Structures are given as structure tokens and as C-alpha cells.
Amino acid sequence: MDILGSGHEQVVFCSDEESGLRAVVAIHSTALGPALGGTRFHPYATEDAAVADALRLSRAMTYKNSLAGLDLGGGKAVIIGDPRTDKTEALLRAYGRFVEALGGRYLTACDVGTYNADLDVVARETRFAHGRSLAYGGCGDSSVLTAYGVFQGMRAAAEHCWGQPSLAGRTVAVAGVGKVGSELVDLLVADGAELVVTDVDAAAVDRVRTRHSTVRAVADTAELVRTPHDVYAPCALGGALDADTVAALPARIVCGGANNQLATPDVADQLVARGILYAPDYLVNAGGVIQVEDERHGFSFARAQARAAGIFDVARRVFGAADAEGVPPVVAADRLAEERIRSVGRLSTIRLPG
């Protein structure tokens, strides 16, 4: 694997034999500030697979944080293991010491397999753990504003396609109703949308249908993709959009909370060819990092929510630019993020007194 050719500033391998810690921290960019990104705890099949995920996710965080208007770069960490059996206090604290050793270049938070309570443990060893529980002065569950941001992006996409920033009367297919997906369902039902959902965890589906009796459920993602709907919302793990899925989608819009939704870069062009508007995941799911970043200033949910509401306006800019420039929305979003990195990042070259 060509780590040196990936464009990353730094990749750190962390190992503590006694606690069983095996982790990788990838810092993609600190042009706008410290690299913020969550810690994913996952049983990767190989070390190469873990490194590849860290590299891919950290690059996406650079673009996500830039589009969100945050003074933060992009990073990500992965811990290799099964969080259900391998996660211990000793392991999390050992990980915290490695994060501390980076001196603030990397700020960690929650991701798949890690939770607020885990970050409380990590924070016992480092000043650079965020997304902590409310009891410890943190921002709590960031899935709330992640879903809120996805909803704002979906409203912008609806306006772009149908002239009104509402999902009322539209059918939205949500793949994955865990932390983010279930919150998104709540917002969509309140907006008047019709919902069809699926999840590998039957209990998660049951919880959603208990709250909303009108929500329909199907057996799996393959069936969901074939079910008539207007908006497809991938809210589980990445790689949800491959050539076969795009070819089968009846949706006019794809907008969901999952990271790295495009299985390969050319899928963006395939979506355009089919007339499907894709809301880039790293744009619309930035509500969580906005919530986590606000914790650094003494958390205010109202302040963080107001900032996450701005995802609507950024999405409108991206869709408009994509049309004007004749490019897929992911290209337009990348250009917008890169321009901010260039224009604001260069300010670090202006020397200040002292």
C-alpha cells in the first residue's frame, strides 16, 4: 500500500501488546487546524484493510470539515478488533495515551463501534478526546445533529429537483435505522414523508415502527432498492452505491448519513447519467462534527444546531455549481472545499507578533 503517495501528512501505528490495542491514526491535513475525526472500532480482516479505511475516512474528514466551515483539518483513527469482546478500559486508555502523544494534531471523537462513554475513558489519558457524554461536559450523542444535517441536505435536494424544500408526500427509503437513521426517520415523518426502511438489526426496525406505525419495513437492502421511492438514504456502512445499485434505483435523489457511499469514484458519473441527484455524504452528514466541534467552546446545542442548519445553504450552492459547471455534485463539493482550504489555509503563512 502506497501510504507515502496518499497525500496524508502523517500515519501513526499504535500497538500495546498487554491491552491488545492495535490502531492506526491517519492525519490527512492540518491546513485549516487540528485534524478532527472519529475513532472506528472494527474487526478488520487485515491490517491493510484497516489502513485503507483510515486513509479514506481521514481524507473525507478534511473535505467534510472544510465544507462545514470549521477551523479543522481531517483525520481518522481505526482500532482493529471486535468492540463487543475486545473493548476494555485498559485498551481505551492506552489508545488515549497515543492520541495525547500526537500533541493536539489529532482530535478524536466517536465513530462506528465507539460511544460517548468510551470517549470519557479515552479522555482520562488525553486532552484531545471530544464527543464526550453530557455528564462530563461533552456534547452527548452526535447522531442527533448528524441526522438533522442530512435532513437539511435532503430538503435542499428536494428544492433543487421539485421546487419545494420539503419531503411531504415523497417516499424516502432509509437503509439502516441505527443511531442516525432512526433520528432521520423521526424528522422525515414530522415533515410529512412516507418511509420504507430496512436494517440488519431487526430490533432497530422494531423500535422505529413502534414510534411510527406508518413506517413500512422490507427484508433487506436488495428489496429496499427495488421498492418504489423518491429518495434513497443510505445510513449504514460505506460503499452502499455501486454500479448495480445505481442501475436499479428508482430514486430521483440519493441523500443519506453513511460515510464513503460511492463504492468507486465513477459511480458519481453513473448517478448523473441516470438523472439521480447525489448529495455528497461528507457535505450532508457534517452535523455530527459540527456538534463535536462546538464542545470545544462549552457545548450549546442551540448554537450547534443553528450552524448545522447551514448545511441547507451549502448544499444549494453545491447543486447550483454542479449544474453551472456541468460536473457531478461531488466534484463541485470538492472544489468548494479545496478553495476554502487554499484561501484560509494560506493565512498560516502570515506571521503574527510573538
Automatic annotation (TrEMBL):
PROSITE patterns: GLFV_DEHYDROGENASE. One of its GO terms (molecular function) is oxidoreductase activity, acting on the CH-NH2 group of donors, NAD or NADP as acceptor. Belongs to the Glu/Leu/Phe/Val dehydrogenases family. The keyword Amino-acid biosynthesis does not apply. Pfam families: ELFV_dehydrog (PF00208), ELFV_dehydrog_N (PF02812). Residues 140-349 form the Glutamate/phenylalanine/leucine/valine/L-tryptophan dehydrogenase C-terminal domain. The keyword Isomerase does not apply. It comes from the Bacteria. This is Valine dehydrogenase (NAD+). Keywords: NAD, Nucleotide-binding, Oxidoreductase. SUPFAM superfamilies: Aminoacid dehydrogenase-like, N-terminal domain, NAD(P)-binding Rossmann-fold domains. The active site is at K76. SMART domains: ELFV_dehydrog.
